[in-house]
Amino acid sequence: MDTINIFLAGDSTVANCPPQEAPMAGWGQVFQAFFTEKARIHNHAKGGASTNSFIEEGRLKTILDAIQPNDYLFIQFGHNDQKSFGTEPFTTYQSYLTEYINGAREKGAVPILITSVHRRNFDENGKQVNTLGEYPLSMIQVAEKLDVQLINLWEKTEHLYQSMGVEASKQLFTWFAPNENPNYPEGIQDNTHFCETGAKEVAKLVIEGMKELQLPIIKFIKELD
Hints:
By secondary structure, this protein is an alpha/beta fold. The protein is 33% helix and 16% strand.
């Protein structure tokens, strides 16, 4: 095999962010840096996307038209499935996820489910609180039912934020005081979208998950500092 392709389907926490939003970044934006030239990352994630809107906009079709046998499709949705245009956890969300899985498998590619990253949300006792409802558990259920390998980024990001604590975890996100960053002159306190530092830390968790699953593609991972 010459090269393996990893296609990413997801929302803003995975997506490439435009320059005017820098240093905001999804983990998919920095993912290529973790691999040799033998693995190519194709980041199709889009801000605001849910499992259903991604399909309705033709984004899944674009991926399935390009994906080849033994390539990978990483699937991470949930944040926007909670919105009015989205899905219900144990019905429509699962049926749309099944479309991604079946689509990849029909092309001889390997689907990998990835549970949503936590939003940074601590209670008064400094404990990370879930804001994602039942979507992560629903995805885990799909993985078990359809025998799909899964990276539990929901669990991994909870441990990451909790280990850093209330204040230090802000370093992972797009948090700036007024006049601290030229792209955010009025300041910003965003507990959903990562900065480049956070995107790299979350990408490391995805890599960790790939190693735990012993995916064949891990031989193309570069060891970074």
